[in-house]
Write a structure and sequence with these properties.
Elements lengths: L1 E14 L6 H8 L5 E11 L2 E12 L3 E10 L1
Antiparallel strand pairs: 1-2, 2-3, 3-4
């Protein structure tokens, strides 16, 4: 998956221990202040491009990890 451009309409879904995968994120990537977010972006997969809702985890100093497409728009 490759993002084309920027992510728009960013919203926070969950923070800290409210994230189901919080323990795994801390173990694998470190950090403490994890946030699960969602937004809309132009995504390219296997040569095809389209708008999609994407979800990812984010932590200060680490950045965005585990980005995935949830819905095609």
């Amino acid at each position: 998956m490759k993002l084309v451009g920027t992510i728009e309409s960013v919203e926070t879904i969950a923070k800290g221990r409210g994230i189901r995968e919080y323990a795994q994120l801390v173990t694998r990537f470190g950090g403490k202040n994890w946030v699960k977010r969602k937004g809309v972006a132009l995504v390219e997969i296997e040569g095809q491009t389209g708008r999609a809702e994407v979800h990812w985890y984010e932590c200060h100093g680490i950045g965005k990890v585990k980005m995935k497409v949830k819905h095609w728009l």
